[in-house]
């Protein structure tokens, strides 16, 4: 089943930013070999036509989307496809006996009706929604061991949930007080062309979008609700930052007690003990997005305010790595029972 | 008292971003003539040495800081100085009979102890704190008429207060629920050199700073408290955006009733009726910072959320114009009884 | 023929960057009134739908492209259209008795065959190519007086020609030695969407394009040839800079004698005497693009090198102003016999 | 001499961009262990205070500059110091028996007088200038084998020389016709603070600097002269691009014959055969800086022009990697007789 003892991987959506980042990261994975790069729109082209930075690194033509061919060539498929596409494709891959890590969002919500409300597409069949393990590695990592199908978390939910869950589990913040002000670099919008991502419209500009309407809201609430043991509803705003990579989630919540910044640091360090990709910063240190750029880290900092009784939690990730391709590989490692860090040992690129 | 029938203006701090923007804007003011550009650090230099874009536009050497000379050459002085400097300089200018619009922040807080707590400098004498009219034009414009001394609002407070005041005055938002997530371009940090503003540290980066510690917090609370009629305390976070100009204040508050976005639009349009520099956007339209760049506008949009009972208010300004030099000129116009728009008829520069 | 004594202007292509900049600049023109904003693609929409920064400034629906209607509503038409469109439209406008300033490039080359070689479209009829006055204001300004039809120069040619012509006319540089290394901000690519202008592809990137193939080459050569009195052929490279506005043309040429930087400064200052929008910088001062941003200036600096016998000439403009809308208005002023600076008194926006 | 069989490395200048990039890259080098990170200005601090992105990656306090201590702790020292500092420090390190890769520029010129002319510092003693091997790996790689002291090439010279040498050696371009128009991201200016690198002065700006005066000129000419066998003098302009990383060198030269683009591609591919870090692009493909970002590649493309008889050669590198830290590691690999690619297997980070 392997090439030279390696797991064979196919990447669907290899011409998007998530797909091309999977290629970058998997180049250094000691136990995985990319055997097929797949694109419905550019099948037959050399991948370096669309991504000249890969010249001489991966000499391979793009394959079309053909489940039988994938089953023949690969052991695991990463589906970095637009939402709606995976809903149809993934069941075929699973039926063909392939392992799947889906980056699309189509299998993150357990409730199909909720999916249809926020995504405006027909939901996948319930059996697949049930089968899909939500791969937030530092929280649900144990669930990933040995399974065949992981639904990789969204970029905003990853930064947000890692920043909120320890405090919610500890009962330190009021469930009805959570406000999430999130900011993302432009790669989060994908590689499709539109006026919204035209350089001259983004540069020297800062804008909010999809206030209270982003499809990542139910994903965040589903997991917070599970942790809290009661329905949690959040206020969630997304903004577009004139930069390529990076998400910051600035989160506000009322505290249930007089917790200090040191309390939060201690709580989170205990929660994330043994988890190499969450770095809880020292008291008084707030992480910036560039400090995790190009890497799989999620860095978290705190500011408590006795005047208002609120805590401000800041969580940053590289949306293309920890928010997509990096966590997908981390999930593969967990599925396979490998060390969590394989292929992910990238120091942040600074500056 | 005037040159060719014009009011003579001196600008202290002409080598900072606020000062140089005053020069740009005053070039087109029909009733003002710049008669002295002043810099303590670069006195004697031609202004175009530090600001080559002014070559051939204002052929003038920088003067030193000399109140007697200012009284001789000017009728009004704009003090665009670092905080702490104006505290000492402005009383001398007022004693010399000059009109003053102070952009420094030294005279915004009515309570000297509060000033010393947040600014870490000795406060000006109480008589000057009392004399200073807080020049938030669209709210307190009437107070400016005929006075000699205006304290120009801070950049963050301008965007924030214009976005909150109508709702607070109407009793539509809960006073203890206000959270302000603010973002600013780098000009807000001034022209001083430091690693914090090094291009390579800012570019492709997004960072939070001074969480709950920014000196604009008491300025915001002082005014909200006055409007609300009771003490208002806010949670306030500032972030640095990799761009030159622009502030967005994203504000969250619990609503006291079931107000819709249309309700908010109507309320704010009524409040700001006749005020040319606040543009309340249509329902569903959220302004972006570039849409006011280079101009004196403050644009406001709303998103209400029945799920959480909160309203999200987004307010944007150009921090160098409406947040500094533009509002200072608007204040001068109000002081002099001129039309509010003189010298400020700039269409936003887009893109 | 005028509204309140003003010339009535229509703008075709009002949803492009050139068109919207014409709107910005004409707002402050004392003798021009915009009476129609025209877009083939968005006719019927309010202009603020596509350009929210114009909210409350120009309340007007976009008209369709209808020459008869233009003749009814306007005295002059600015055609800021893609190349190929003006070729067909402008003759109809001229026949209808309208004045035209064409920003498209379709009428810049006098030789139709040359046009078809570089532009890959059928050329306009020869009579119109002959009629069109090439509006490089500081060189051919006299030709504009009283005419009805101006072909507005391209952005790269404007920066380049203003930087080369005085030296060529003086016989100071070798005609066969000219190399032009030009760089432009992204607005130069227009507002159309494509992967080439996707933010994430441009940001943190610097690329060359169309080396020796840019359609502005024959425009530059045609004018240099006229000035030189013999055929001039140039090497011309264009690069895309991750910024919105600005062109720098860095030009290299072998000198015919031992000219110093002071010689060049003196020569150019004499050539451009009385021309307010060319600023020849002092010896040793090289202009940067931001120093003309938002304004109609072209700034020029020199570095001579005794080691190689070459001069390096640096010329900068704002491509949307002096390279498009600003020079178009300057041309209108010259056509009408008005002062050259009307509506163009913008100080550069810095920073 | 090694820790766990690894070569022990010290990095002087660990708080600059070159030093911190050495840390990033050496993390993945299988045969090198960083045993000391050294900073004269920040000795005693944890490195993560100045570079929070290294939190948890390298837990080490900065050492002071002490040659005896270095000799005790390390086998090789990378000196990423300002010019003038290495001139004094490196001889002490060599005397102490350490291997040295110097990134400062102090030992690149063989002629001390030339050094003093361009660098304005006293030159190192001639014996060290002679001893230093100029480490342009793809050209002089054989000279590095077994030596103790490498002078690492400058960033501009690396991009430029790799782009010119094969053509000069083949006699295809005229020696007196070479013009180099170079552009660099801001990290090239170092991490020191000054108005020149203030974000608001760089962003939305493009500027030329040090025209014909850059200290990399004699370095380029020294090597071209060696290859050409006669004195070569170049015209060289540097520009600052609003981005962090990347250099493009756009080079112009008159051709000695009718060479085509295919000829150049073939020539260069033959010259660089077996050299993994130069990628000669296909005919018609011009590389952009982002396509090598974060990696050790130098990518080269060509445009020949029959109209002018000139060739335009475009060469791009990441200035911090191939132009500094990456090539320094490549040189270490060559010194030690290791495989050239150790620790350098980074796929470019895109986008």
Automatic annotation (TrEMBL), chains A, B, C, D:
Protein name as it appears in the record: N-acetyl-gamma-glutamyl-phosphate reductase
Query: Which organism is the protein's source?
Result: Paenibacillus etheri
* PROSITE patterns the UniProt entry points to: ARGC
Q: Which InterPro entries match?
A: AGPR, AGPR_AS, AGPR_dimerisation_dom, AGPR_type-1, NAD(P)-bd_dom_sf, Semialdehyde_DH_NAD-bd
Q: Which reaction does it catalyse?
A: N-acetyl-L-glutamate 5-semialdehyde + phosphate + NADP(+) = N-acetyl-L-glutamyl 5-phosphate + NADPH + H(+)
**What family is this?**
Belongs to the NAGSA dehydrogenase family. Type 1 subfamily.
Which taxonomic lineage is given here?
A: Bacteria, Bacillati, Bacillota, Bacilli, Bacillales
What pathway, per the record? Amino-acid biosynthesis; L-arginine biosynthesis; N(2)-acetyl-L-ornithine from L-glutamate: step 3/4
Gene Ontology molecular-function annotations: N-acetyl-gamma-glutamyl-phosphate reductase activity; NAD binding; NADP+ binding
What is this protein's function per UniProt? Catalyzes the NADPH-dependent reduction of N-acetyl-5-glutamyl phosphate to yield N-acetyl-L-glutamate 5-semialdehyde.
Which Enzyme Commission number(s) are on file for it? 1.2.1.38
Q: Which UniProt keywords apply?
A: Amino-acid biosynthesis, Arginine biosynthesis, Cytoplasm, NADP, Oxidoreductase
Which cellular component terms (GO) are annotated to the entry? cytoplasm
Give the location in the cell: Cytoplasm
Domain of life of the organism in this record? Bacteria
Which GO terms of type biological process are on file? Answer: L-arginine biosynthetic process
Which SMART domains does the entry link to? Answer: Semialdhyde_dh
Q: Per the record's keyword annotation, is Oxidoreductase included, yes or no?
A: yes
Q: Which residues form the Semialdehyde dehydrogenase NAD-binding domain?
A: 8-147
Active-site annotation: 155
